[in-house]
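Note to self: keep these together.
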Amino acid sequence: MVTYSALPTTASQRPVLLVVTPSESKKRAEVDQVMETIQTGLNPAVQIMRITDTTHPEVVRSFNFSALPAFVLLQQGQELWWHTGQIDSPDVFLELYQQVEIILHKTTKGS
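Structure:
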């Protein structure tokens, strides 16, 4: 796993879903629709951070994404799950939700 120290950090141990969108407004609007779905099913303990390729180019470059949008689940700078391209499959939503639950379970157990 890769550590990304260039990302903004918080004192909390909460997992972070980093959502990277292209700066083009039409594509951002498509991601916003997906994010509405994600937010309704995602555990509220997850912090969501949205950035664009123009607001944080150094972060986007550090991940070396093959396509945007991109979604990365992080905890304490460790990459735990990622997906590039639109999330348009229920299986991808389920995979994300399962990863979050695994992380939160480990956090509450002190692992």
